[in-house]
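Comment thread on ticket #2218

A.B. wrote:
> Attaching the input chain for the structure job we discussed in standup.
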Amino acid sequence: MIGPLSPHLCQLSPADRVYYRNLYCGVCKSLKNRFGRISTLTLSHDVAFLGLLFPQQPQCPSTSVPCTLYPWRKVLALPEENPIIQSCLLINTIFSFCKYYDHQQDGDPHSWKYFFFRKLFREGTSLLEQAGLSESELQEIIAQQIQVESLTDLSIEAYTKPVANLSARLFGQFFAVPENESLIRLLGRLYIQMIALYDGIQDYQEDQQQNRFNLFLCLEKKSNRKDAFEQVHLVSKRFLNLALEVCPEENRKLLHDSFCFGFISRLKNVEQNLWTNSKHP
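C.D. wrote:
> Ran it. Output below, let me know if you need it in another format.
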């Protein structure tokens, strides 16, 4: 259960809480059925949050199934044949491949842990093909991203361009309707920028010590920490406003509350921790 877009469920209305849980549990159950129980450890709350960009599908109601984590418990979950679950499963698989290749090419000493997800990476290639992607194409995108990160004095857009372009492509493919495709693609780019900045704040000290690329640190060096945080908040605000614009009306309040009571409160915490625990250049 990872991902900075995870909501504080207690802050949601009862109906919204039920729908979000049904969506999350549906993706989790689909992962387990397709790739085995351990593959559910790759599931990100970000994927469930992005699932809110789809209109609800009343013709595919939730069903009672055993919980993946606690099999003796029953949970309500959207069924695997629901188009929302199918798309979220694809997106989660593609992002998992990207993380795997990024850790490989970065020489991450902990990349051995992906051995436990070997079924996902062995059989998930069929899902890549459904999305019009290949392993070699994803590897090339990650290689381009790492190359860009070796450059200096670039903008947020330039530093995130390779993966942001992939995200824009996926958002356009899965979420768009003809009248909002350009907005949805922009939302995909903003999503990558926002997550890269959040991760940069969260991993600030560790990345400094290990001399790893950190987008937030790059912004801080170009100006100062206060200005860098202002850019983070600007990107986050643009993402939320655009997400609310393209979100189906029935999910708008849930998306707003999930973001504000989840990501924004989490961002404030990591921001405060950074000011408290580290000195800026």
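A.B. wrote:
> Thanks. Noting for the ticket: The chain has a mean pLDDT of 90.
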